[in-house]
Amino acid sequence: MLRTRTAAAAVTTAAFAGLLALPAPAQAAGSVHLYKIYYDSPGTDSRTNASLNGEYVIVRNTTTAAVNLRGWTLTDASNHKYTFGNFTLGKGKTVTIRTGKGTNTAANLYQQRAAYVWNNDRDTATLKRSNGTRADTCSYNSTRVDSVTC
Predict the structure, then answer these.
(1) pLDDT digit string (tens) for 59-83?
(2) What residues pair up with 148 in beta bridges, in sequence order?
(3) 52, 118 in Cβ contact below 8 A?
(4) For residues 61 and 48, what is the distance between their CA atoms, to the nearest angstrom?
(5) More confident residue, 3 or 29
(6) What does each C-alpha distance from 85 to 5, 59, 111, 135, 138 come to in angstroms?
(7) How far apart are CA 146 and CA 55, in angstroms?
(8) CB proximity list for 107: less than 8 A, separation 6 or greater
(9) Whether 31 contacts 135, CB under 8 Å
(10) Rounded Cα–Cα distance for residues 69 and 17 (Å)
(11) Can you say whether residue 51 is alpha, beta or left, with left for phi > 0 and alpha for psi between -120 and 50 degrees?
(12) Nearest to 131 by CA among 77, 68, 37
């Protein structure tokens, strides 16, 4: 009888430990996250629209479903804020958020700014969901390269 209880306890303990080792659903399903920041546009910082659009942030959806980003925000350390309109990011897709002016497409969104957002030496990007919870952050601290992969 004691052997049966001990064996049952061992099986229960092993099963419980196995459940704890499983990934959380959010981990298994992927995420919407910052993928890359190109913070120093090529050439001189001339404030032309082409130069402004040379700095950008790429957001990636690694979930198994499309995600509507309406109301999500992208900010830098100085609180320059871009708020997503009604935009759906497909599963496995990326979208590039450019600083300057342009017409939004499925692949590119534009902040419609006339000045740079991302510092050329250090900054922090924060992506928040529409409810205000943080989805991701990515920081850089370098003048040796022009971009960072998050």
Answers:
(1) 999 999 999 999 999 999 999 999 9
(2) 37
(3) no
(4) 30
(5) 29
(6) 60, 15, 11, 17, 22
(7) 9
(8) 94, 95, 96
(9) yes
(10) 37
(11) alpha
(12) 68
pLDDT at position 55 over 60: yes
Question: 95 with 81: CB under 8 angstroms?
Answer: no
Q: Which long-range contacts (CB under 8 A, 24 or more apart) does 121-125 make?
A: 123/37, 123/39, 123/76, 123/77, 123/78, 124/76, 124/77, 125/34, 125/37, 125/57, 125/74, 125/75, 125/76, 125/150
| Sequential DSSP letters for 49-115 | HHHHTTSEEEEEE-SSS-EE-TT-EEE-TT--EEE--S-EE-TT-EEEEESS-----SSEEE---SS
* Residue recorded with tokens 């996250």: 33
Distance CA 101, CA 39 (A): 16
Distances (CA, A) of 121 to 19, 36, 40, 54: 44, 15, 8, 16
| Rounded Cα–Cα distance for residues 28 and 109 (Å) | 28
What single-letter amino acid sits at 97? I
Q: 29 falls in which pLDDT band (50, 70, 90)?
A: low
